[in-house]
Amino acid sequence: MRIIIIAIMLTLASSFTMAFSPYENYILNAKVKRAALIASVKPGQEAAMDNALKALSDKKESKALKKKDITNLSCYKKKLSGKTWVMIYFDYSGDDYLQAAKDFESAGEVIETLNKSIVPHPRAKRYGTTWLQMEWICYIRGSLSEEETKNAFSMVTTIKPQNEKEYRLLHQSVWPGVVDQMTRGNNRHFSIFLVEIDKTIYEFFYLEYVGIDSKKDGEMSSTDPANIRWWKLTDPCQTPLPGTKDIWSMMDKISDKITK
After folding, report:
1. Among the residues of 135-202, which ranges form H helices?
2. Domain spanning 137-251: which CATH class is it, in words?
3. Domain 21-133 class?
4. Reported pTM
């Protein structure tokens, strides 16, 4: 009997890749990963940057990106630490997740033009890229709807250094009730990314809404008991952007066409 059990365990183990962290398990096993790149804009180049990013939605450019395993691309910007920073989000189906930035940068002439208008994050050079791939710390699939949506958005806040450990641990095991309400609220593909900018830890999230009544869904989420208890733990870990009261600040969308 023991031999049979061992044989079954070995068969199961060979059917998927096992790692010790939830993040690594997902990276090794998921067909589609989520990536977010960041860079700042050169002074006086914001209009040129906007035009180049919007051009990525063209059919020709979308096709070039798809050849690099990049789909569902959207772009956002925000004034942070005295500079305009740009976040590029996309779904990535390449085998090596850490190649996402390099694959993006090699996807066509438009990106070569785009790169002339941006300043790399100081840490990007270390990895041989112009755009820095931010650290992906949380993902919630949410709604199983596969309907295409243009209602995707990104928001930003900061993490208190003394609470970084607590915040990371909470998002390593998001409560089932919080995940359930994300789904009930018709939200999907929620991702959190972290990056340091001028010694401040910035947190960005990306989210797609696929419902028809955002006000109703939002009210349901804001009054959900599990969410309320969850926010009592996560909110003290965060600090709003200077001059704002709400913890989260909306990013300005540059590219409003989500490519599939």
Report:
1. 164-172, 176-184
2. alpha beta
3. alpha beta
4. 0.92
